[in-house]
Structure formats: structure tokens, C-alpha cells
Amino acid sequence: MSHVADVKLVFSRLFSLKNGLSNIRWGSRNLSREVDKTANAKTSVTPLPPLSEPMPNLPPVAYSKAKSEDTLTEVTVLSNGLRVASEKKFGQFCTAGVVIDSGPRYEVAYPNGICHFLEKLSFGATHKFATRDVMLRELERHGGICDCQGSRDTTVYATSADSKGLEAVTQVLAEVTLRPQLSADEIEAARQAVAFELETLSMRPEQETILMDMIHAAAYRGNTLGLPKICPKENVNKIDRGIILNFLKHHYTPDRMVVAAVGVDHEPFVEYVQKYFVDMKPTWHSEGDETNFQPVVDKSIAQYTGGSQHEECEIPLYPGSDLPELSHIVIGLESCSHGDPDFVATCVLNMMMGGGGSFSAGGPGKGMYTRLYTNVLNRYHWMFNATAYNHAYGDTGLFCIHSASPPNRLYDTTLVIARELANMAGKVGETELKRAKTQLQSMLLMNLEARPVVFEDVGRQVLATGKRKPPSFFINEIEKVTADDIVRVAKRMLSTRPAIAARGKLAHIPSFEEIQANMNSSKADPTPQNRRLDFFRV
């Protein structure tokens, strides 16, 4: 009996608790209703503003004003003719370097390959820094890195480091350009590095480096830009310390140099350059020449000749790749210098031609709508590459198309490219012109986001013209280019004798006269002259 009573007591208590919870819920509901009524009453008095309208009574927006681009680059000419250029740029780091009017085009009276050696000898031991490691440790104290790159007409020594280490960086640049030791061990190490590079170039499937030397040699036979950038094998053992010092003495002079920096204050930078570049003398002023070889500096203007240069060989394959063996051909035409009024129009034409590799995936940003994609790579299955290049120099330029295909397709490939060059003087579509101009503008601005690119642009422009034109100038010039400008520039280039460079198995290459005849044809026929292409022949 007591057990039953206990169970009843438990159930009665649970029933009481349930009724209490029910009352609480009903009470909370009533309370929420009262709150909703109060909120609705207040909302009806002061409603919130809709998101589709601006907030009332806000002060007007004040936008920051950018500094005029025309005053960004400062240039100072020192007493010995050395130019110092700098540009302010936000950030903790700076890029500084030396741009020199010196390259393989000036090696007419020297054994070709000196500039190739100088690239390998760069940032070595100097009178201040006993070894390369000591100099690199000095740069590392300021988070610095360094590099030296040579083109056919310039040599650039560059460093990037913390802006607080600007004086140390300037001293390093002065030492490596004006006061290198060039010891026997360093010369021998550079000789071995050059020889190794020559050996590896012939073993790599990529052919651009060799082909660019060949097309320049064909376009400017035996003069200036036609001289090799890569050291010839026969000259590897001929170049010694005396020849290098002699070249430096005549070409690393103040009037041929620009010391430039981006991300620094101009006044202290000029002081450091004066201290280390001017007040301290270069190596060749304290040492006598080790050779009686005394050539004068070559000041001749490039002479475009046109012509052909062939090299019959086997092109290496990628290990494990199923790609076929390829033969390469480059067809070039004389264009214009970077100071020519047609320079910008030529750059737009280069963008319009575009091109690339047949396995380059992507959309319009990768040039899939350019002429060499739509008219060549997407149409002829045997084409593995078709890329347009425009090389601009101070006195001339070279516009060329590089293509690659299996050796048994080389005849068709060559004539397709020749006809595509001829079609440059045909009708220019409004859409393709606008696309090319927009792409060129965007590439220009995107590249100038990088501080090292801005440094090189400052240095090269000041070296060539004494000042730097702002990006807005080129943006406006690109916008002015019309279809008539493109046709005029194309006809100007097609009036010159072509330059042809070919490498690989060349049994099926057309004759020079046949290539020239297809480029001079006035008919805008996309297929090679008097020949039906077989699309399905393997």
C-alpha cells in the first residue's frame, strides 16, 4: 500500500509541474505580444530608411587626389655626365640598379661573347668585398637580392632590398660595375659556366634562345644586332681578363650609364651615387691595360640586310613526352625603333597577331582570339607553335613569327606563316583592334605594378631619352591607334626583305624566293600560294 501511495504522489507532483510550465509558456506568449505591440507602435512613428535610398544628412564624400604622374620621376645629371633617376613608391623595399648602354651589338672589334662572360662574372669579388660571399652577406643584412641581365643593346645590374639599406646597396652596385677584381679563378669559373650553358642549350627542347640569335644574325648580317648574344664555342677560350677590362674601360663610362632606383628619396640617393660612383675611381683607372688591344667604341647604326640562316640538326625531345620531333622556323621583317612614331602601332599589331603554343589553355586573357590562334593554330592540326614577337631597339626593330611543326609539315607551316604575314596588310576588324588595344593597355599597367619592372622602365627610358614618359602617355597613344595605322605599319614592314631562321630537319623547307613570293602576294588567301593543304596527312 505504501508503494502505491508513493507512485500517486509522484504523478501528482508531475501534473503540478506540467501546469506550471504551461502557465509560464502562456505568460511568455502574452509578454511577447505586448512587446510586439510596443515595437510596432514605435516603428510606425520612426521607420528605418530603405536600402534602396542613400542615408540622409550624410556629409559629402571627399576623395583623395593622386599626385600627377608627370612629376613622379626625378632625374639629376652629375658633373661627369652620369645620370641618376629615381621614383617614389609606397612600400618598405626598394629596387636600385645600373642600366648600361653596353651589349653584344658593340662587340664588333672584340671576340664575341664578352657580355655573356660578364653576366656570369656579375656580383663577384670587388676591391671592397674580397669574395662574392662577403658581398652577398652585405646584401642579406638588408634583405637584399641581386641579378644581372644582358640584352643585345643594354646590360642591367639590379638589386632589391630594404629602403633603409640604400647606401649599402648603392655601394655594392658601384663596386660590381666599376671595381670588379676579375681574378683568374673567377674568369675560369665563368668560362666553365659559359661552356656548360652552351652544352645544355643544344640538349634542351626549347629553341627560343638559339633561334633569336639566328634570326638576328639573318636580319643584320655581320653588323651590330646581328652579332651573337650567346658566346660562340670557338671564343670560350679566347676571352681573358685583359679583353674584358678593355671592354669595360670603353663601355662602362658615365655617359653610357644610368643609376636608377624606385622606392627611395631622390636627394640622399644622389648623394650616395656621387660618393661611390663619382668620387671613387673604377678599376681600369688604377690598373694599366693588360693588352695592346685598343679598339674604338662602335657607334654605327644597325644595317638591316635580311637573308636566311639554317642549321640542320636533331631537336631533342622532352623525356617521357609523346610529342613528335619538331622543326622550327622564324620569319622576320624590319619594323621600327622604340623612338619611331609607328612604335605604338607596331606593338598593337604584335598584340593582334599574338599566338602561342598549341597546348596553351585559357580564354581571351591568354590570347586565344588573336590571329595566330584563330587563323593558324585552330585551323592546322600539325602546328605546335606560332608566336609573334616585336624586338625594338634604339635605331631599328625586328618583327617576327616563330612556328614549329613536324619536319614533314615544314613546307606547309612556312607558307602558312608567310601568308599570315602578308594578310597583316589586309582588312582590320573593329572588334579585334579594340581587343588588341585593350589587352596591350592592361598588360602595360599590370606589368608596371611590379617595382622591378618600374625600375627597368625608368632606367631604359632615361638612358634612351634623358627622361621618362608616364604610363598615361602610352595608354593615350594606344587609344589613338586606328585600323589605317595598322595597315600602314604592316605595309611598311612587308616592303622589306624577309629574314628567315630555321633549325631542325629541314629537308622540306621552301626556298627563300618561294617564301618571299607568298609574302608579297596581294591576295588575302589564307592557304599557301598555288598549293592545296592536306589537313589529314600525318
Summarize this structure as a short list of keywords or feature phrases.
alpha+beta; Cytochrome Bc1 Complex, Chain A, domain 1; 2 domains; disordered C terminus
Average the pLDDT over all residues and give the rounded result.
87
Name of the CATH class of the largest domain: Alpha Beta
Any idea what the CATH architecture of the largest domain is? 2-Layer Sandwich
Q: What is the first-to-last residue Cα distance?
A: 105 Å
The arrangement of helices and strands along the chain is HEEEHHEEHHHHEHHEEHEHEEHHHHHEH
Major sheet size, sense and barrel closure: 6 strands, mixed
pLDDT < 50 runs, ≥5 residues? 7-11, 21-29, 522-538
Strand arrangement within the widest β-sheet reads: 1-2-6-3-5-4
Work out the number of β strands: 12
Q: Based on helices, strands and strand pairing, what is the structural class?
A: alpha+beta
Descriptive account of the structure:
By secondary structure, the protein is an alpha+beta fold. The chain folds into two domains: 71-286, Cytochrome Bc1 Complex, Chain A, domain 1, CATH 3.30.830; 307-520, Cytochrome Bc1 Complex, Chain A, domain 1, CATH 3.30.830.10. It is built from 17 helices and twelve strands. It has helices at residues 2-45, 114-121, 132-140, 166-178, 184-201, 208-219, 241-251, 266-278, 283-286, 343-353, 371-377, 410-422, 430-447, 451-465, 471-480, 483-494, 512-520; strands at residues 73-77, 83-87, 93-100, 145-150, 155-162, 257-262, 307-312, 327-334, 355-357, 385-392, 397-405, 499-504. Strands 1-2-6-3-5-4 form a six-stranded mixed β-sheet, with helices on both faces. Strand 4 (145-150) and strand 5 (155-162) form a beta hairpin. The radius of gyration is 34 Å and the shape is globular.
